[in-house]
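Run log, item B.
One chain of 91 residues. Sequence copied directly from the ordering sheet:
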Amino acid sequence: MPSASDFDAAATALTKAAAELTEWMVGTRDRFGPDTISGGALTQVCHQAVDEAEQLATSTAEALRSQAALCRQRAAAVRATRRRSAATRPR
């Protein structure tokens, strides 16, 4: 069974991944820049693709944060189990 520190490390990695993904998607449309000609069917397709990518990134970041929370809960449960075991051990 993974240790509490294993769960903590996983939670940290998942939280970092969620933050990086969220940061990566901020201002995506602004990256088209002032030199980008806007209008027409191709622009609509690009905007739709960016919107879908933003939605996917947002839901993925939420899932990563949820998994991080689960890892933190499991780390706490492992610690509690170890404390109870240590308290009931004969000395």
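Observations after the first pass:
- The radius of gyration is 22 Å.
- Residues 40-88 form the longest helix (49 residues).
Flagged for discussion on Thursday.
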